[in-house]
Amino acid sequence: MANWSGVNFDTSSNERISRVADTERNLRLEALLGVEIEIAGIRLRQITGYDILEFEYAENKLLMGGKPDESDFCHFLWTLRHKSEKKNQKKIFKIVFQQMESVSFLEKVYSLIDSAFHDLPAGGKKVEKSYEANPKVWMMGIIDIIAHEYGWTYDEIMNTPFERTLQLYQYILKRLIGDKYNIRNPLTQKASMAELAKQQNG
Question: DSSP code of 127?
């Protein structure tokens, strides 16, 4: 991780970095509070660990990679519909088909996915192996540590917004590893690097 202790940013740079930091903090607060999300008029809840594994099991391309089609978006939004959402499946699917050409709609969906993984430590999905096939479920290490440290049940962990789980996971790592582990603030760090590049390039 970059060390910014010896870098002096001007007032404008600091203001831009601060705005990004506020955005990053709000993303975390939304996960901690379980804030309802709305995309294309559809009320959605926060993504949980269960959701992520269900999407992976169903090979939903929004999370697994590749070019997603309408069925991936329909599956994604129907799964995440908030309990307060009154639209039925047919109505939600109709909205998806209408929105597939909307850049704003696509950006909001991908932003929701990104926010769920925001606090995932670097290499969080890495699995050590000497062969190409990967029979392991990458999330189990996170589940194991949370269960061990807090005494939560599997269902409690998996029904928690995943970004909330990852925030706790980062603080557990910080407590166990100490100064060798730094809490990731990817958005703020990226903004700081951009401002540093501007400064160095004049």
Answer: -
Euclidean distance between CA atoms 78 and 69, whole angstroms = 15
- CA-to-CA dists, residue 152 to 45, 139, 141, 161, angstroms: 21, 15, 14, 14
φ, ψ at 87 (rounded to 5°): -70, 140
User: What secondary structure, in 3-state letters, does 37-84 show?
Assistant: EEECCEEECCCEHHHHHHHHHCCCHHHHCCCCCHHHHHHHHHHCECCC
Element (H, E) at 142: helix 140-150
User: Rg of the Cα trace of the chain?
Assistant: 19
Closest CA to 27 of 120, 153, 159: 120
Q: Which two tokens stand for residue 90?
A: 């047919």
pTM of the model: 0.83
pLDDT in tens, the chain (202 residues): 454 455 676 778 888 888 989 998 998 999 999 999 999 999 999 999 999 999 999 999 999 999 999 999 999 999 999 999 999 999 999 999 999 999 999 999 999 999 999 999 876 554 444 445 667 789 999 999 999 999 999 999 999 999 999 999 999 999 999 988 888 888 888 888 887 777 777 6
